[in-house]
Amino acid sequence: MAGDDVSIHGSWASRWVFILAATGSAVGLGSIWKFPYMTGVYGGGAFVVMFLLFIALLGVPVMVAETLIGRRARLSPANALKALAVHTGHGGKWSWAAFAGMVTALLILSFYSVVGGWSLDYILGVGAGNFQGIDGEKAGGYFAAMVDDPWRMILWHSAFMLLSAGVIARGVVAGLERSLRIMMPLLFVLLLILLGYSLTTGHFMDGVRFMFHLDPSRLMDGLLPAMGHAFFSLSVGIGSILIYGAYMPKQTSITGTVMAVALLDTFVSLLAGLALFPIVFAAGLNAGEGPGLMFVTLPLAFGNVAFGQLIGVVFFVLVAVAAWSSAISLLEPMVAYLVERTRFSRLWVTSALAFGCWFVGLGTVFSFNIWKEAKFFVTDGGAFQLYQWGAAGGLDLFGVIDFFTSRIMLPLGALTFVVFASWVMGRDAVRDELAMRNATLFAVTFFLMRYVAPLGILIVFAAQLFK
Ligand code: PFF
């Protein structure tokens, strides 16, 4: 178990492949689609500042914890927790946390695939020239028409799920490495091109002000959402990074690598925000528009720049690839576990799980059209109601799944992993696995893992409950 470089799942060829895969997992719709729209909904600067703080103080320590658990055990999340707990004289019950993580992953993938499908739809939309010379109203109309049509969404949702499952069925290492080496750098370049466009809108500073001006009155609103999104964005809390850590070569520095991935991920989020908001303000769009924000804003850029049609197609291809490499990391922990525990083949296991996610994803598809009026947790107008058709407030089904996964399950999963590493495995095991040369740096890292991250998560939960 601990220490050897071979596992039944294979190993990354080098440290770079781990960085590539973990960045592929972290950078995805969370950075490009979700971060900007949440920033818009939760008040700009207040959300961004808390998000950055949570990434540094909670997200990174949890990511270090997950990676080191994975590399020490070289097993899928549930079996890793069990093996290491038993190894240190604790009960095997810890593996339940990993099962909860698998359910969370399944739920996240269900809506992730729907939004990944939107980017596939947009590849064709831009390619066909639909966005040439488009204005804000038409861009909004295009998005509304897409989400109004359940069949169109189901088609792209299915295509996205098939593409992701196809790679996993063949084995992650080969499939990921080949595609990500080219795609990830290209994504950066295209985001920079978009940033260049937003500099020409005349509203660049409005965007910057919106993203970094801290309005203290909005701090509490976005507290739990910012924490949940920090975990979502780094892919921690469900075992995705753990399973990638399980494929990591022994001599690689965990902390250095994790820092690189976290920085890249945060950089992409900020870049996406800085590219989007100036366009939003220049076109007089609503920054708090919600999930449609990126899909309404970017067509304006592509419709109004030279070579916009070509750049737009490439951009949405890259968004789809970024989403696809994250989707893979959502499925992989479950697939690895079932391959370890059952006699079913990788192909069979992947197909069954992908079908399950696809089916649950129909709930998200319908949230935007035929079930639009189905609202849960309605508090408007006094009394609380679990469900009401046509209520003004409350959450639609997509909102419920998002709330449950990002705001409850990911933080709980993160808490479990970081407590497991720092308290159950203990200081010596962590020191051994991190192998940091600088003793002070190790002390700081361990302090963050042992005290700051767990307490931070609990305090945010408590603040939310009693606000
Ligand atoms: N980090 C991904 C993103 O930001 O798009 C989403 C994600 C992947 C979340 C894997 C959680 C996860 F385990």
What is the gist of this entry?
The protein is mainly alpha-helical and 467 residues long.
Shape: globular
- SSE order, as H and E? HHHHHHHHHHHHHHHEEHH
Mean pLDDT: 91
- Find the structural class using helix and strand composition: mainly alpha
What is the CATH architecture annotation? Answer: Up-down Bundle
**Helical residue percent band:** over 70%
Give an overview in words.
- The N and C termini lie far apart (46 Å).
- Strands 1-2 form a two-stranded antiparallel ribbon.
- The protein is mainly α.
- The radius of gyration is 21 Å and the shape is globular.
- It is built from 17 helices and two strands.
- The protein has one domain (15-466): Sodium/glucose cotransporter (Up-down Bundle), CATH 1.20.1730.
- Mean pLDDT is 91; it is low at 1-8.
- Helices cover 75% and strands 2% of the residues.
- It binds 4-fluoro-L-phenylalanine.
- 4-fluoro-L-phenylalanine is lined by residues 25-26, 28-31, 105, 108, 232-233, 235, 238, 240, 326, 329-330.
